[in-house]
Amino acid sequence: MMPVALRDARASSTNTRTCGTCHGRVSEPHRLNAMLNSPLPRASRQRDNPNVTRSHVSFAGLWSMAIDVPYSYLLRDGDLAWTCGQLALDSEANAIHNGDLAAQSSVVCDHVDAILERAGLSRHGVQRLYLYHANSPDDAIAAMLDVITDRLGSSVDLVPLAVPHFYYDGVVLEVDVFWGGPAAELRWVHGPGGRSRLSEHIVSPSDSLTDHVEALDPGAVIDGGPHLTETRWIGVDVADGVVRSDVGITDSVSVVSRRSEPFLWLQGRSTDEGKSLVAQTEALMRRLAEVLATHGYEFTDVVKSTTHYIGGNTAEELHDNMSVRNAYYRSPGPASTGVPVHGFADPRSKIVVDLTLIRR
């Protein structure tokens, strides 16, 4: 049976804006005054624990995509928070400072500051940034890191990851923010995991993609492209507890489940190489819905969705698979990020989706 949230979302999914020109023209200097009139965070009680407040910073007032989305700029649950991928876009989905990595880093930091302020969170809690960037000269990457370190502090774990291209002309950077306060129940770590490992992303040089047999899903290892020289293990551990694990393949969809109450992490991918990107996305999301139900979770419990996919450099290719994923959520939804990658260890897979869920 189709979930109620999915039915409702599909009923309204035709109300989308087209990409328009997306020329990446340089806008006026970045304006923070837009946030002053933007919606305040929305708060709700976790369904099983009325003492824990979940809040969302609405996707409005700073920048927009060229498609309507049900996601949030930021989702906070207790002493943890996640942002969606932050882009140097204006309110019409045009790139700001077309192709300039350092300048876009500054714009993204403006976005992060504004979102944290709207959420009532301090910079001091920023734990990790995923810096998805276009392949760039070393000096441009160094300038990006300098800007972000100067703006957000030297103690933040910066994880630069090169991607083959972006989907909006002129965009060269997308940034994910992971925030944790003093009582955070998760730890941001590097290296192979143990019994406390909740989630992981492994980014490997192309010539060693199939070497990581100890990965939670060896087939989901990401190809880091021609310039990556060493493997990056990027993990999240539960601070106190043991994680139970399960791996299964049903209808050519592989799903890894990692659970330690109140957390659940799922990573799924299709192994049906004959299917298109959109068809793989449809099969994958259906299977993830089934697995969520077996654990007693719902899509409303998702706090962070991360999607890596193999596709072209057009907005349409992102929007086509994104529309499938969007239909499973209603606003205010989770923080969500989707970026193209060079490939996966299993060449049959065109997309890998992972979901972090909390049910208290």
Explain what you see:
This protein is an alpha+beta fold. It has a single domain (4-358), classed as 60s Ribosomal Protein L30, Chain: A (2-Layer Sandwich). Helices cover 21% and strands 33% of the residues. The protein is built from 5 helices and 18 strands. It has helices at 4-12, 101-119, 138-152, 277-295, 315-326; strands at residues 42-46, 49-58, 72-77, 80-83, 86-87, 126-134, 157-163, 173-180, 186-190, 197-204, 222-223, 232-238, 244-250, 253-260, 263-270, 302-309, 335-340, 351-358. Strands 1, 2, 3, 4, 5, 6, 7 and 8 form an 8-stranded mixed sheet that branches. A hairpin with a 2-residue loop joins strand 1 and strand 2 (49-58). Helix 2 packs parallel to helix 3 (138-152) and helix 4 packs parallel to helix 5 (315-326). The longest helix is centred in the first third of the chain and has 19 residues, at 101-119. The protein is globular. The two termini are 25 Å apart. The model is unreliable at 1-40 (pLDDT under 50).
